[in-house]
Amino acid sequence: MVAKAFHEMSPLIFILLLLCFMLNPILSKDIKDARPEKQSFEANMKSQNMKLIKNHLQKINKPFVKSIQASLKSPDGDTIDCVLFHHQPAFDLPEIRRTMPLVLPELPTRHNKSELTSEVKQLWNSNGESCPIGTIPIRRTSESDILRFSSFGKKLSTFPKEGRRSEHAVAYVKKACYGARGKLNIWAPKVTNKDEFSLSQIWVTNDAGPPRNTIEAGWMVYQELNGDTSPRLFIYWTNDGYNKSGCYNLMCSGFVQTNQKISLGAAVTPISSYNGPQYEIDITIWKDPKGGNWWLVLGHELIASNLIGYWPSSIFEYLRDHANLIEFGGEVLQNEGPGAHTSTQMGSGHFASEAYGKASFVRNMELVDKENHFIPMSDESLYAERPECYNVQSGCMKKNIPLATSNRYLTNALYFSLVMIQTLSFNECIGMQKATDKPQHIFVFRMHNICKNKKGSR
């Protein structure tokens, strides 16, 4: 019965098989023809992308007179190029070349004497390496850097990936200002994902627009940008609300560097330790009343040798005259999906109640007024999008806890105290200091454990 059925169906099977054999060359030809076309398209796109990358690298990696290669000379793995001052990326814009100041800026003045702060170094020159006079040290950008960070050194005003967002814990003042200064506690926070960052910085902003104009400086941990998890000195600027303009460090035309000892984007050292020595970076940003440019100083002494460089006022619209918003504090870019939250730390990653030596801080916040004088920041407001995850509190220093500097303790009676939950009056803050000294006003910010890998919250 089975043999009979097979015999009856065999002509039909034979016809079907014959059709398959006849069509097979045509189908296989189409498949073979499509595969090279797809491969050619992909190769063409890859070639175009590599051409764009190489063109960008040629713009920002300038000819150098000396190169400090990534080796024992630069323990952080960076290659530092010593580039002639007039060859740096900023001068690719003719308008910046034409408006270069011919005299040093007028440094802001203060009524009280500035105290010492912990000394911060960079790894690339920790073994005695340096750039010659007339050059500036620029961290070389590699092809892998661009492939890893495809936005060519820019922040994004909107994040295309759902769930990617910034969260802040800051103290801020909204009023006309001409600069800001603060001492930022340095830590190495744990960052969960490569495309997330954690930072501590100062924002000098004018948001009279749109668009927002802003200048930023501080330290950050950002593996997608820098390729590692070291805290690194950084600057940023934008004149269109993080849309098309601006960049990190010297990755585009804009900031003009004048200092031969500091490399923007390079790792900083030493780093604060939990319940151990605390280290800070002292940052000043102010508008020169003579030249009109916004200058950056790194270090507690406001002297010419600590000038890092300037942002020309000509690259801004609303910041050409003054800022109207100053912020100090921390920011985390988190990239978990909807309904989840990153476990990336801000600052030290510890609670405010753990206080000095355990929670991250910014201290001695000052503003620059129209007369180019430093004035203590007052009437500040505090802000955090997710206080259950990252929060900020203000307080003062009352108790003798030493600050580390160059691996030894200060002896000039400059001490910190526990950070109080509420803001105390100035008199309550004086503590062990002389009555004529200004109190050590402080802000702390950190991550709450409640947000680690938390699901179902936004």
Automatic annotation (TrEMBL):
InterPro entries: Glutamic_endopeptidase, Neprosin, Neprosin_propep. Gene3D superfamilies: Outer-capsid protein sigma 3, large lobe (3.90.1320.10). Residues 1-28 form the signal peptide. The keyword Signal applies. Pfam families: Neprosin (PF03080), Neprosin_AP (PF14365). Keywords: Signal. Residues 158-417 form the Neprosin PEP catalytic domain. This is Neprosin PEP catalytic domain-containing protein.
